[in-house]
UniProtKB/TrEMBL annotation:
<dbReference type="InterPro" id="IPR002725">
    <property type="entry name" value="YgjP-like_metallopeptidase"/>
</dbReference>
<dbReference type="Pfam" id="PF01863">
    <property type="entry name" value="YgjP-like"/>
</dbReference>
<dbReference type="InterPro" id="IPR053136">
    <property type="entry name" value="UTP_pyrophosphatase-like"/>
</dbReference>
<protein>
    <submittedName>
        <fullName>M48 family metallopeptidase</fullName>
    </submittedName>
</protein>
<feature type="domain" description="YgjP-like metallopeptidase">
    <location>
        <begin position="28"/>
        <end position="231"/>
    </location>
</feature>
Length: 247
């Protein structure tokens, strides 16, 4: 059976399309984040698939809303014993009251927070966010340099910030790439996927056939990495599935 893969975005929703030797078009919405996959007959073109998906949008959004309402990681209270994630691994927080600056250290399966007594959870969460940024600042230059060499591209400017709507973003005019602080919680393969995804936008603005071809050529397992990124524990923020997609 011959198949051909395509990737399109419809009303802000990413769609994986597989063309097959079948009679009817099938649309599926899958956990954990409501990714949409379409199996379409070979006789269909992209416009026909797009029209079919648009007609089913109310049902698709209903299914995705159910996944959105699934249990998420609650807001961190910053107390000893709760779970935190770094590079895809879970650590148990241990708080040690000690005079001096607030800082974190990884000790085995523990994330140890040294902090002066009396600091509230809001300030400790802010300190944790800053620590995640430090982890990314340490790792990103190595990952970017590696892929600059592989792709023959240069990244002149990149930054890290909290983003509610994207894992990463790329300004093709200024070549400025921005990475979400939350990536420090995910497996390194996921960070590498976002780096390559955003650098590929230097060559192709959208997510059409050329973008897919470029991604397939430089990172054949990018779909697995993307699904891994979206399947790992979610933060407390109310992010929708499309808001968690890369640009």
């Amino acid at each position: 059976m011959s198949t051909a893969n395509a990737y399109m975005t419809i009303r802000g929703i990413d769609i994986d399309v597989i063309y097959k030797d079948i009679k009817n078009l099938h649309i599926g919405v899958y956990p954990p984040l409501g990714r949409v996959r379409v199996a379409a007959p070979n006789r269909f073109d992209d416009d026909a698939v797009r029209l079919a998906v648009i007609k089913r949008l109310p049902w698709i959004r209903q299914q995705r809303q159910q996944f959105k309402n699934a249990e998420r990681q609650s807001e961190r209270e910053m107390v000893t014993g709760e779970s935190h994630y770094l590079w895809g691994s879970r650590y148990r927080l241990k708080i040690v009251d000690r005079p001096g600056r607030t800082h974190f250290e990884v000790d085995g399966d523990r994330l140890v927070l040294y902090t002066p007594p009396g600091r509230d959870s809001t300030s400790l969460r802010k300190a944790l966010d800053g620590w995640y940024r430090e982890q990314l600042r340490h790792v990103l230059p190595v990952v970017i340099a590696r892929w600059e060499g592989k792709l023959g591209l240069s990244v002149p400017k990149w930054t890290i910030r909290r983003m509610k709507t994207k894992w990463g973003s790329c300004n093709r005019e200024t070549r400025h790439i921005c990475f979400n602080t939350e990536l420090a919680k995910k497996h390194p393969d996921c960070l590498e996927y976002i780096v390559v995804h955003e650098m590929t936008h230097y060559l192709e603005r959208g997510h059409g056939a050329r973008f897919i071809k470029l991604m397939d050529s430089v990172m054949p397992d990018w779909r697995i990495r993307r699904d891994q990124l979206n399947a790992e524990p979610l933060a407390a923020e109310e992010w929708s599935a499309e808001e968690r997609s890369a640009s």
